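Please describe the entry underneath.
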Amino acid sequence: MTKKKAVVLLSGGLDSATVLAMVTNQGYDVYALSFEYGQRHEHETLAAQRNAESFELVEHAIVKLDLSAFSGSALINEISVPKANTVEEIGKDIPVTYVPARNTIFLSFALGWAESRNVTDIFLGVNALDYSGYPDCRPEYINAFQKLANLATKKGVTSSESFKIHAPLIEMTKAEIIKTGIGLGVNYAHTTSCYDPNDLGEACGHCDACLLRLKGFKENGLEDPATYQ
C-alpha cells in the first residue's frame, strides 16, 4: 500500500517543529521545505536543519529567496523589532515584523514543489490565537489559498485528487501546541522563535515571538530550553 505523502513548511520555530512531529506521527512520507529569505533571524535555518535531522524525511530542501526588495518589515529591513516586557503589552495592530505576502509566497512555492512530487497535502504551522496578528495566519486565508491551489494547477483541474492546505495548529494556544509537541517527543531546544537574536543565536526574550513562547512554556509548568541573552 502506497504511503501518504505530505509537504511540511519547516521554519525552525516551535510551531513548525510540532507540525512536523504530528505529520510524521500520522504516517506520512514527509518532504520538508525551508526558506532563507534574508530574515534577520537567520539562525532559524540552522534550527530547521536540526529539526529535520530528528526525523526520517524523504527530502528536506532549503530554498533561497531574495525578499530584500520588500520594504517596511523589521524582519528583512533595518528597522527595530518592537520589544515589550509582557504579552499584555503586545500591540493589537499588525506589527512591523509582518513581511508583505510572506505566507502567500511560501505557499505558492510549496504548491509548485508539491505538484512536481505528486503530493497533494501541504502542512504549515500558522496559528490564529497566540500570534502576532498577521493576516496570512487566519483560517479564511488558508481556505482561500486552498481554493486557489485547486484552480491554478494542472493537478487541481485534471486529477481526482485535490490539494489540501492543512493548518493543524490554527485554533490552538501556544501552551496547547507545546503540550502536543512534548507528547510527540519534540526537542524544543532545537527550535528558535526570536525575531531579534544576537550573533550567537540567543533569543532577546522581549519580542512578540519570545513573549508568546515563554508564556506557553510557563503555562505548561516548563522551562523554555531556548538560550536567552
